[in-house]
Specification:
single chain; 652 residues; mainly alpha; 5-stranded mixed beta sheet
Length: 652
Amino acid sequence: MGERGGAGEVTRRWPGVADFAVPAVLAVVQLGGTWLLTEGLDDAGTGGPLTRERWMIAVAAVLCCSVALIWRRTAPLTVLACTAVVGTAGTLAAGHPDVIVGGVADMVALFSVAVHRGRRDAAIGCAAVFLLLTVSFLPQRTDPAVLVTNGLLDAATYVGVTALGQLRRQRKARRREIAGRLAAADRERRDAAAAERERLARDLHDVAGHHLSAVVVHSTAAARIDDPDLTGRALTAAADTGRDVLKALGNLVDVVGPGESADGGLDTLLPPLCQGLARLGVPVSLSVEGSRRLRPQVTNAAYRIVQEALTNAMRYAQGASVTVAIRYEPGALYVTVHNTAPPEEIPAPSLGGGRGIAGMRERAESLGGTLAAGPDEGGWTVHARLPTSATAGRGRGWPEVLDGAAIGVCVALPAALAFAPPDAVLAGWSAGGTALAMLAVLGRALPLWWRRRAPYTALAALTVIDSAWAVLAGRAGSGVLLALLFLGSPAAMIAVSSVGSHARRGVVTWPAPLVAAVPWGIAFAALGTLDPGPPPERPDLIAFGLVTGALFAVLVLLPFWAWGRTVSGRGRRWEHSALESMALRTGEAVLAERHRVAIGLRGTVLEHTHRLVRAAEKGLAGDTQDALTAVADHARAALTDMRALLDALDET
């Protein structure tokens, strides 16, 4: 029987090929690494070679944990308990600091728990294995500084593994949900079309049915009574009511806006709009970055926002140049309209109704987006973000936990190695100098907090800090500072991977490894300044180090960029593409119903209502009795056509 996961999830009953392969690889790595650290490398170990009994304990513990990992997906909690207890017991029994028994299999098991179980189980499992690992290594970590720094590194690592597993769980659930919605896309499209038909029918009945019926009744009654005053009031009421109906139906028809035409992408809709303003003397420039099919609602909202922003610029900033920028990104469309300051102060005419910005903001918020408008660099800027899929954005949670864990690892790893015997990098430093060095390591890792929202900015900040660090270490001739810089190299790897996976669509990401390689080249060149050779040889050493370090860094960083580009980026783009495709299909179904109603209204109901208003206005200026009859006839004809349209909607 498999364990029951959170929310009723039942994990797989039978292991697969990968379930056997991963434990086998881990066993080879653990036993091979233990041999290298204890016997294979001269003077590498700190506890001497292992005795035969200790080797048997280490092998037995590693094999037990590896066998247990085969069922890590079937029974993740049981496997985690087994690997944690066996790993702790094996580490304590082996009694050697270089034995790789605990802390490997339990990380794999913890990841499986985080993937297959809920938040509570994952958090408890993370805390439990961390405490057991700390207990197992207490006999070997007698130095307080080593104990603290290694504890921080272990904590950051386990929290990071848990966060990765929970994110994997969320991603799998998300993909299952999207796959289910894709399978039900046809039903959703039919449901959306039916709902839109019902809404349009209800609006038609409420908007036009009551008013036109009232016109028929009042006009017919007034025609039977020979009362000029009553006839005039009836014609006036008919004309006013007809205009109200025309306005209401016009608004209903206008729901099918320019941005919602069948082939109306922004790249084809906006140029005529901007060119029309340019012909009126307003210099307008348009840039569209990227291209993608959008939901009709998003296209229409973007078009209307640009239209209103251009109108405001023409009204209130006469003579100023206007820039319209459209940028497509995964999950969102960004619209920016900026006008410069007008060349001279011109009193703004009272042409607007005071609802322009509020209307634009309502359009954006109706889609779950945002809009900001205000003065900028002497001019005015309107900036809108419109979600391209009909789903709410993810809140804060495990992604931020993972970012914090990444920062923790990038701080704790150099700290742990800096204090670890027998070659502690900071050995002999004063307390103040050590504290400053650790603060510098922390400040260097902080840009990783923005690696998702602004990956290139985070990479650039890290590159500048590392380059300055390398230059300072070279000028000071400090090998310790260079060692700390190299120990913190995982930060650059994480930043490069983040550019590959989180850079916005259309942005070139391949330069990321080249940018991140610059500090490595400077650091290798700084090593040349520490060489004790004669001064004439140092320029050659510096140049050689600069080139060699940069090339070596590119080779190291390229796999991390490729990983972020192909794995994380591809999954994220698939989700956005699937969601936008579903929303697009639903929007097209809704749009088709709107077009049907719009065509029916334009061809019949609107025409008869126009004639009704003209007949009433003509009657007020002349033959009132015949006008009342004509008004009643046109109102009846409009009602008849409207009911036929409603019947057609009902039949559909």
